[in-house]
Structures are given as structure tokens and as C-alpha cells.
Amino acid sequence: MTASAACYLLKLAGLSLPARLLQDARVQRTIPLVPIALLAALVATQTFSTGHHLVLDVRAAALGVAAVAVVLRAPFLVVVASAAATAALLRLL
């Protein structure tokens, strides 16, 4: 219940911001970067917050393969498929 109330109040606070604050150039440059930062934080949390060393190694290796595919500008589906294949092969071993 407390978490629901906190989420509601946070959303209400966002809707209550004055329009002039949202039109600021710094805010306009920052807003598109927020989802990227949140997704990166979620990926890092899910990858590195476990006590199982074997799982940690598999997840880290899959994340590394995905990072290399992104740097090589591979299409999104290739990035996901290569990371999944890496994790599957390492778990098979």
C-alpha cells in the first residue's frame, strides 16, 4: 500500500510541474536520456546482483557479447540472439 501511494504521489508531482520548467533547454536534453539510464541500471542490477557464481559468469558473458554486438552496430535482434545463444551455450557446458 505504501509503495502504491508513493508511486501515485510521484506521478502527481510529475504532472504538477509548471510548463516553463519543462521547456528549459537542459531538461529537454536530459529527458530522452532517462529511459536509457534506467534500462542500464536494471540490466546491471539483474546481471551482477546474485550470489550464484556460475549464473553471474553466464550473465556477464552474455552481456559482454551483447555489448560487442552493439559496438559493431548489429541490429537489435542480432544483439539479443547473440546474447541468448551465448548464455545458452555456456549453461549447456
Structure write-up:
By secondary structure, the chain is mainly α. The protein contains six helices and no strands. Helix 5 (53-71) packs antiparallel against helix 6. The mean pLDDT is 88.
Uncertain segments are none
Largest sheet: none
Number of strands: 0
What form results from the Cα inertia axes? elongated
What helical percentage do the residues reach? over 70%
Our count of helices gives 6
Strand percentage: under 5%
Give the SSE string. Answer: HHHHHH
What would the average pLDDT be, to the nearest integer?
88
Q: Which structural class is indicated by helix and strand composition?
A: mainly alpha
Radius of gyration: 19 Å
Report the span from N to C terminus: 44 Å
Considering the chains and any ligands shown, give keywords for the structure.
93 residues; mainly alpha; 6 helices
Summarize the structure.
The protein is an all-alpha fold.
Strand and helix layout:
Blueprint: H1 2-15, H2 19-22, H3 25-30, H4 34-48, H5 53-71, H6 76-92
Helix pairs in contact: 5-6
